[in-house]
Design goal:
alpha/beta, Alpha-Beta Plaits, FAD/NAD(P)-binding domain, 3 domains, 7-stranded mixed β-sheet, 5-stranded parallel β-sheet
């Protein structure tokens, strides 16, 4: 009984205190003075920027536009600040790796005494742990392509690119640049840029344009037909690689009066890809064609699809015609080519960054195993490889491909010595030859390229050697001079991440 009374008393006491606490919680709080309310701290609104595609506000650090879905990485080069002249920066220098020159040979990683400071990522050397770098510059000393410099600005890559706005227009109004020349070498990015730039051009001239198959799209001169001397096209596209062809397909879809001009064959950019394989992780949308997905990731497979697109859509591409000059006139621009002259209100330059590579003009040079640049040396293993040339690029490629005896490399040069190459490269190739890593064929020229072999003329004698890949590195015509003549400004920018790491 005593226990029951004790429990009841304790419950009443607890109820009394709980009731009082609940009254305090539900009681009306006195209104705060207005001044006090204004003094309360407020969270600063997040910084916003305009989406380069749809112009709607998005978060400054957004990876994608929440309105139109555009990937903001596409404009990473355009948004990068132009480098200012150095005024003697202080601090410990760090290696700056030019991804365009890096061939992934790994020499810098082996030479670096600081384990883990440098690593190969995506086929390129990257400074993954800057804190471990002591600034000894051994990596720069051994780089066969001189793709490593030392800088105080902390950039991982410096690029020399045309000055292009976020709408892909250059400092010359009416002239646009897309694709690899603008700083991005990715297939998907180039295709997207080609469509986006034509969307922009269409807004400028699209009031009179009609859908494909009507009006301007149907009446314009077809490839091979001479254009009227006074005909002014809405847009002329220079180049038929991923960006140029995408722009042409979009123009065709909009019914614009357009023409694409290619100095070589269709998709010559793809034909010159040096990789054995490249990755297309997800499909991309091709105007007038639909989703594009190449499962085995070879350039031959992509080239086959590219040719199918051209054949099935009727897109107007004029091949084997080189654009030599673009000059402003009263109607817009006069575009002079190796076969005539065209007039256009707008010009889109979808050129390759490396310009026009010089070719040998020998039988078999159009085979898929022939390339005019080396990007990823580590992707070639246990192959028979021929390098043609005697300059720095040829020597650097031979050294990079022969490292660790991973391939059997032959270097063919029409001269006796390598006087045109830098002294350090002459030293590297001499060491590689002495170690049996590279077979140097002096006073030699390529006679014919076959499926499994190559025929060389060595001092007047025909020599046939086994071969899987041929790299013709005998120079070319840089697009920079052409751009300068057009009035386009060339600038240098520093990027935090290599923009041309792959052609994905």
């Amino acid at each position: 009984m005593d226990t029951l009374i004790t429990v009841l008393v304790a419950s009443l006491v607890t109820l009394f205190f709980v009731r009082g606490y609940l009254k305090k919680l539900t009681a009306k709080k006195p209104a705060r003075p207005a001044a006090a309310a204004h003094a309360a701290p407020s969270v600063a609104p997040a910084k916003t920027i305009a989406c380069p595609r749809c112009a709607k506000p998005i978060g400054e650090s957004s990876a994608f536009c929440s309105h139109c879905g555009a990937a903001l990485a596409m404009w990473s080069v355009h948004r990068a600040a132009v480098n200012a002249p150095s005024d003697g920066a202080k601090g410990k220098p760090k290696p700056v790796i030019n991804a365009s020159l890096c061939i992934g040979c790994g020499s810098c990683i082996e030479a670096c005494p600081e384990t883990g400071a440098l690593e190969l990522v995506g086929g390129k050397a990257i400074l993954t742990h800057p804190d471990r770098c002591t600034g000894h510059a051994k990596c720069a000393e051994v780089c066969p392509t001189q793709g490593i410099l030392y800088s105080y600005d902390g950039a991982l890559q410096t690029v020399r690119v045309p000055l292009v706005k976020e709408n892909f227009e250059t400092n010359v109004p009416g002239v646009f640049i897309v694709g690899e020349l603008g700083g991005m070498g990715l297939i998907k990015t180039a295709v997207n840029e080609g469509k986006l730039v034509m969307d922009h051009v269409h807004k400028r001239v699209g009031k009179t344009a009609k859908p494909a198959g009507h009006g301007h799209g149907a009446e314009a001169a077809a490839p091979g037909e001479a254009a009227k001397a006074d005909e002014v096209r809405d847009v002329l596209i220079v180049g038929a690689g991923p960006a140029g062809l995408s722009a042409a397909l979009t123009a065709h879809q909009y019914g614009l009066n357009y023409l694409a001009i290619e100095q070589g064959e269709i998709a010559s950019t793809i034909r010159h890809y040096p990789r054995q394989k490249f990755l297309m992780a997800e499909p991309l949308e091709i105007p007038l064609y639909g989703p594009l997905y190449v499962s085995d990731g070879t350039k031959e497979a992509l080239l086959s699809v590219w040719e199918t697109i051209v054949a099935n859509t009727g897109v107007r591409v004029q091949t084997n015609e080189r654009v030599e000059r673009v000059a402003r006139n009263t109607s817009g621009f006069a575009v002079e080519t190796s076969k005539g002259q065209y007039h256009a209100k707008n010009v889109i330059l979808a050129l390759g960054r490396r310009g026009t590579p010089r070719s040998l003009g020998v039988p078999g040079e159009d085979l898929g195993k022939v390339a005019y640049a080396l990007i990823e040396a580590e992707s070639y293993e246990n192959k028979e490889i021929l390098i043609v040339g005697g300059g720095d690029s040829a020597l650097e490629a031979a050294v990079g491909l022969s490292k660790h005896k991973r391939n059997r490399v032959t270097l063919s040069y029409r001269g006796e010595n390598f006087q045109r190459a830098r002294e350090r490269n002459q030293k590297f190739i001499a060491e590689a030859e002495a170690q049996g890593l590279v077979s140097v064929q002096r006073n030699s020229q390529v006679r014919e390229i076959r499926e499994k072999t190559v025929v060389l003329d060595v001092a007047g004698k025909a020599v046939e050697i086994a071969n899987d890949y041929v790299f013709i590195l005998i120079g070319g015509v840089s697009p920079e001079e052409f751009l300068k003549k057009t009035g386009i400004e060339i600038v240098e920018k520093s990027l935090a991440v290599a923009a041309d790491r792959s052609f994905n």
